[in-house]
Amino acid sequence: MSVALFGGTFNPVHLGHLRIAVELAELLEVDQLRMVPCSLPPHREALSVSAEQRMAMLQSAVANYPQLVADDIELQRGGATYTIDTLRQIRQQIGSDMPLYFCIGIDVLITLDSWQEWQKLGDYCHLVISPRPDYALPSSGALSDWINQHRCDDLPQLKQCSAGKLYFCDTTRLAISSTDIRDKIKHGDAIDFLTPAAVVNYIHQHDLYE
After folding, report:
1. Does the pTM exceed 0.85?
2. Which candidate among 10, 17, 74, 89 keeps its CA 20 to 30 Å from the CA of 56?
């Protein structure tokens, strides 16, 4: 069973997240794409809703997508969230031979050298990078060298091994953000068609982001 991970705060999850997740699941031909909400993201300020609420919204959002799974592995661990710990834990679950893909945007990739043990990420997974406008790869330095060392442009080749490569793919980016959704709620504007109806209902029922 091959597995892909798609992490984030999901505060709240929205249709842009889901569109990318579905496309990645199809592209990588994985048995599961696990959407993993982080507990306490080290690089961000404290969140305005609880981890349990973010998880509940994510569970309702993926309910109708069999290939997508809401995974609370980081919430169960608690404390500061480090991706390297999550990858090690999932490797223990699935073994060393099965492909494991960690899916991020290029905006995240260019900050990777600020992450805990970032140069060891490829020991546990492939990195799959989605584009975002107005972001460019570093042209020099340790991160640039690491990207060039691990880059693979051959998707079938990527799928033949369990970890260690970095692949750039094209995914549909919808002009939706969690920040915009929260701002709309604060101003009393509708958020229909930006996030699944079940998430809209949950937000209203629990008076979130007001």
Report:
1. yes
2. 89
